[in-house]
Design goal:
This is ABC transporter ATP-binding protein. It is built from 10 helices and 10 strands. By secondary structure, the protein is α/β, with parallel strands linked by helices. Bound molecules: adenosine-5'-triphosphate.
Length: 264
C-alpha cells in the first residue's frame, strides 16, 4: 500500500509563495514557499505549533496572510472565502471531525454535494421533475462514494453514534462528494488504531489513484507519511525547514534534530 516507486509530477496545481501570517505578536508562518503538483500526495509535517493547520487554513481561504501569494491553477488568488475555494475545487477535512452529528452518514455526505446542486433545496421540495432527477443524480454519486469507502453498513446511522475512525471516513466521504481537484486532509489518521490507520492509508491512496485527486495532508505518524507521500514539506516554528521526497527529508539533519529525533 505504499508509494514504492518515485512518481514524477510536472504540473504545479497550487503555489504558495513567501506567505507570512501572524496573530498579534505570534508568527504562525514566516516566508513560506512551496508548491503542490497535480496528482501528487504532498505531506506537511512538523512539531506541534509549527504552523501546519494555519497553512491549510491559508490555502483554503480561512485565514488571510499578511504577506505572500497563493497561485491556484495559474491564477494568483486575491482574498478568498472558504466557499469560493470549495467552488474552485479545494475541499478539506478537519483535525477534529466536523460533521452534523445528528444526521445520517448519507445526509452528511449529501451536504458535500450542495455546491454542485443547480437548484436549491426549497425549490427541489416544491417542484418535481427535473429537480427531482437532479437530486437522484446527486444521491447516486454519494452512493458511489459510500461503496468506494466501504461504509454501506452505516449509511443510515447518525454519525454521532459512530466510532471515531468511521466518523473520519465519513468526513473524507463528504469532502469527496465535492469532487475536489485538491483535497486537504488535516490529520486524517489522528486518534485511530493501527487497523483503522491502515484502512485510511489505503483509501487515501485509492482516492489519489482512482479519482486522480491531488492530496495535501498533515500527519504526525511518520510511518504513514513516509509510506504514502510523494513529497514532504517540513515546518518548524512557522518556518520551512526542509522540502523533498520522503527519503531525503528523513535523512535531513535539521529535520531529525527538530522533529523526528527530539521533540520541543
Ligand atoms: N486563530 C489563532 N489565533 C491565535 N493564534 C493562533 C491561531 N491559530 C494558530 N495560532 C498560533 O499559530 C501557531 C501555529 O499553530 P498551528 O495550529 O497552525 O500549528 P500546527 O502545526 O497545526 O500544530 P498542531 O500539530 O498542534 O495542530 C501556534 O503558535 C498557534 O498558537
Amino acid at each position: 500500500m505504499t508509494q514504492n516507486t518515485a512518481r514524477v509530477f510536472d504540473e504545479v496545481l497550487l503555489e504558495v509563495k513567501d506567505i507570512s501570517l501572524a496573530f498579534g505578536g505570534v508568527k504562525a508562518l514566516t516566508n513560506i514557499s512551496f508548491d503542490i503538483r497535480k496528482g501528487e500526495i504532498r505531506a506537511i509535517i512538523g512539531p506541534n505549533g509549527a504552523g501546519k493547520t494555519s497553512m491549510l487554513n491559508v490555502i483554503n481561504g480561512f485565514y488571510h496572510p499578511q504577506d505572500g501569494t497563493i497561485t491556484y491553477k495559474g491564477q494568483v488568488r486575491r482574498k478568498m472565502r472558504p466557499h469560493n475555494a470549495a467552488k474552485q475545487g479545494i475541499a478539506r477535512t478537519f483535525q477534529n471531525v466536523a460533521l452534523f452529528k445528528g444526521m445520517s452518514t448519507l445526509d452528511n455526505i449529501m451536504t458535500g454535494r450542495l455546491l454542485k446542486m443547480r437548484t436549491n433545496m426549497l425549490l427541489q421540495a416544491i417542484y418535481w421533475g427535473p429537480n427531482q432527477r437532479e437530486e437522484i443524480r446527486h444521491r447516486e454519486y454519494c452512493e458511489q462514494i459510500i461503496d468506494f469507502l466501504e461504509i454501506q453498513a452505516i449509511r443510515k446511522t447518525p454519525v454521532g453514534r459512530l466510532p471515531y475512525g468511521l466518523q473520519k471516513r465519513v468526513e473524507l466521504a463528504r469532502a469527496l462528494a465535492m469532487e475536489p481537484e485538491l483535497l486537504l486532509l488535516d490529520e486524517p489518521m489522528a486518534g485511530m488504531n493501527v487497523e483503522e490507520k491502515e484502512d485510511m492509508c489505503r483509501f487515501v491512496l485509492d482516492v489519489n489513484e482512482e479519482f486522480g485527486t491531488t492530496i495535501a495532508l498533515i500527519e504526525h505518524d511518520m510511518g504513514v507519511v513516509m509510506d504514502i507521500s510523494d513529497r514532504v514539506v517540513v515546518l518548524d516554528y512557522g518556518r520551512k525547514l526542509a522540502d523533498g521526497p520522503p527519503d531525503e527529508v528523513r535523512r535531513d539533519e535539521e529535520v531529525i534534530r527538530a522533529y523526528l529525533g527530539v521533540g520541543h
